[in-house]
């Protein structure tokens, strides 16, 4: 079990130890990371195409995704408003409207990558046994690059420690997501460590889907991808609604995306005071996604 964990964690740790100061190299890392994500998502689509009884598996994927979405979302939203009651946060939104197409274009590209892989796999009808091996190799490189990105994201340990609101949000999101995953696992009658792994995506749908697919196969990978994508799309809709009265709740529901994809929405509707909180909470949750998910997945290996 631990040797397998070490093999997966090693690229992430090595990447985190690599400082990069030149902007052009960081841009190259970001570009390569995105391209590798697209490649692995295409491979995920190919894996789905190789499943027997594909229609039945798609129903299972949707059922899993909806169940986890309801259970995790409910446990998050029941607890996060407590932070707003205990630690009121002032907001000053700018009131300018963000277009839906701008907010959803990146999500659409990733969905399209999975769809392309699925369609190509169904049309070619070739042997797809090589897909899992290829995905594992690319995943190791991707984790190395993600480690580099996290190290060079601009967040120092001092900045993280001093932002108590961001720390509390991240801690509460983790503390409430995991019970939600256990509840969903109980309802679906699947191993509890699978439920804990599914609950550890925190909105990072591309990486979560890839890790779950690599660890448990395309059904779990597809379910995780849809689950976290649905969380992000829901965050886009509810952040502008909640952030005036419940800013910490709105930021917390954004999960790992609060430091990147939903950050412009948080800044636009909540004001500049919300930005450091969102970046810190999003950074911590992003860092924990591969750590927690790989740990829980390793519990089922021999």
UniProtKB/TrEMBL annotation:
Q: Which domain of life is it from?
A: Bacteria
GO function terms (MF aspect):
L-lysine efflux transmembrane transporter activity
Listed Pfam families: Lys_export
Q: Does the keyword Transmembrane helix apply?
A: yes
For this UniProt record, the keywords arranged alphabetically read as follows: Membrane, Transmembrane, Transmembrane helix
Listed GO cellular component terms? plasma membrane
User: What protein name is recorded for this chain?
Assistant: Lysine exporter LysO family protein
């Amino acid at each position: 079990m631990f040797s397998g964990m070490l093999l997966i964690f090693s690229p992430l740790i090595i990447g985190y130890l690599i400082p990069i100061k030149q902007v052009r190299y960081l841009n190259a890392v970001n570009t390569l990371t995105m391209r590798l994500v697209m490649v692995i998502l295409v491979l995920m689509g190919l894996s789905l195409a190789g499943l027997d009884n594909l229609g039945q598996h798609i129903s299972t994927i949707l059922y899993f995704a909806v169940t986890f979405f309801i259970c995790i979302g409910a446990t998050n939203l029941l607890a996060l408003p407590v932070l707003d009651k205990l630690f009121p946060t002032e907001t000053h939104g700018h009131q300018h409207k963000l277009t839906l197409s701008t907010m959803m274009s990146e999500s659409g590209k990733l969905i399209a990558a999975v769809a392309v892989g699925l369609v190509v796999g169904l049309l070619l009808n070739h042997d797809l046994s090589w897909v899992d091996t290829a995905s594992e190799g690319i995943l190791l490189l991707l984790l190395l690059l993600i480690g580099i990105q996290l190290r060079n994201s601009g967040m120092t340990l001092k900045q993280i420690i001093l932002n108590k609101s961001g720390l509390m949000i991240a801690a509460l999101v983790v503390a409430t997501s995991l019970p939600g995953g256990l509840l969903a696992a109980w309802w679906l009658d699947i191993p509890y460590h699978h439920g804990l792994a599914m609950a550890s995506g925190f909105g990072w749908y591309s990486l979560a889907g890839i890790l779950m697919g690599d660890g448990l196969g395309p059904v779990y990978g597809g379910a995780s991808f849809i689950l976290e994508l649905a969380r992000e799309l829901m965050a886009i809709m509810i952040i502008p609604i909640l952030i005036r009265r419940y800013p910490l709740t709105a930021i917390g529901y954004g999960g790992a995306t609060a430091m990147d994809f939903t950050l412009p929405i948080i800044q636009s509707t909540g004001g500049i005071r919300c930005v450091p909180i969102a970046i810190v909470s999003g950074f911590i949750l992003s860092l924990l996604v591969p750590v927690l998910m790989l740990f829980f997945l390793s519990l089922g290996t021999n």
